[in-house]
Amino acid sequence: MITIALQRLQTRKNIQQGLLFFAVFMLIYTMVDGLNMSYAEMGETYGSSLVLINILLNIVMAALSAFLMNLSTIMATLKGKEAVGSNLGFLSVLFGILTYGCTPCVIAFFANLGIAFSVIALPLAGLPYKFISLLLILVGIAVTLWEIEKGKCKVRYTSET
Predict the structure, then answer these.
(1) Which of 71, 78, 109, 144 has the fewest CB atoms within 10 Å, counting from its CB?
(2) CB atoms within 10 A of CB 151
């Protein structure tokens, strides 16, 4: 089933969908970075190498998130159900918004939910949290690939002729 899914990734529709997902995720990750600290300020505070690492991580995370979304879509068409792992990409974005977001926004958000705590400054402009987000995306991809290959299917798949 994985070979069928990988073949479907190469169709024009899925390539266009992947590019759209990539653009949306790049926009989200760049906005989240901007809410935390502008790239100019990050460069002045931590050096240009951290800015470059953040931008490269944004590109990798956006590409992997787009891949995960495409895999989830393909799995839904192949098996008639959505992948559990696809939710980890969303969780990664939510995690990023809550950790990279401006401190007053996050505190206000949790205060509305009745959660009160003090927030400490994130080290290296939130870079460790970005690695955790990347890990969540990779786990999502692994779970989705496992579900495509080993997961149970409600509908028996027959090849198109």
Answers:
(1) 109
(2) 16
Tell me if 156 is assigned to some domain: no
Give the count of beta carbons closer than 10 Å to the beta carbon of residue 33. Answer: 22
Q: What is the pLDDT of residues 40-74, one digit of tens each?
A: 988 998 899 999 999 999 999 999 988 988 888 88
Q: Note down the domain range covering 128.
A: 2-150
CA–CA distance, 53 with 148 (Å, rounded to integer): 32
Which pLDDT does position 117 carry in this prediction?
Answer: 42
Tell me which residue of 8, 3, 17, 29 sits closest to 137, measured CA to CA.
29
| Per-residue pLDDT band at 32 (split at 50, 70, 90) | confident
Q: Residue 102 pLDDT more than 80?
A: no
